[in-house]
Design brief:
Blueprint (H helix, E strand, L loop, with lengths): L16 E2 L8 E2 H7 L8 H28 L12 E2 L2 E2 H25 L8 H28 L10
Antiparallel strand pairs: 1-2, 3-4
Length: 160
């Protein structure tokens, strides 16, 4: 007899909307779960908290740009002129990507702190490195999406 026990993926919690500042669109938790391929192991409260933190971070990064747009007479991000993709403003789509990436980074950071590391054989360093790389990728995706919201070129700088 083997000790294998199959676990079914956790059920998906109901979708919720996380309200935002008036200029920015609200964020749908189901859309973040789907884009981040979250399987339901994070509770609704954990996800809402991570999204709220992401909204604060992304909105702070874009605050000066948003003030310029509001001074130009645009009440919401959706009102700022931009080409449309899939029926939505490219800027709104980029903003949603920025918030999703920042949310995933925050959840990944929590996972790193709570990770159950394999004992021995030097695997713990490899696991932490892998989590660290994913974390860096999420933050980079957020920075790229913020640049897309503002209509600026993406920049990558490496030290030699």
């Amino acid at each position: 007899m083997t000790g294998f026990i199959a676990h079914l993926p956790a059920g998906q919690p109901p979708a919720e909307t996380v309200e935002n500042e008036p200029f920015w669109p609200a964020i749908d938790t189901a859309a973040v779960r789907e884009s981040g391929r979250l399987d339901g192991t994070h509770t609704s409260a954990q996800l809402r908290g991570a999204i709220a933190g992401a909204l604060i971070h992304v909105n702070d990064q874009l605050r000066a740009w948003a003030a310029q747009q509001q001074a130009a007479g645009f009440a919401t991000l959706g009102d700022v002129p931009a080409p449309r993709v899939a029926g939505q403003s490219r800027r709104v789509l980029a903003y949603q990507r920025a918030v999703a990436a920042a949310t995933l980074a925050q959840l990944e950071n929590t996972r790193r702190a709570q990770a159950t590391l394999p004992a021995g054989l030097g695997k713990d360093a490899r696991v932490l490195e892998s989590v660290g790389l994913r974390l860096d990728e999420h933050w980079q995706a957020m920075r790229h999406a913020i640049a897309d919201v503002m209509g600026r070129m993406r920049e990558t700088v490496d030290l030699i």
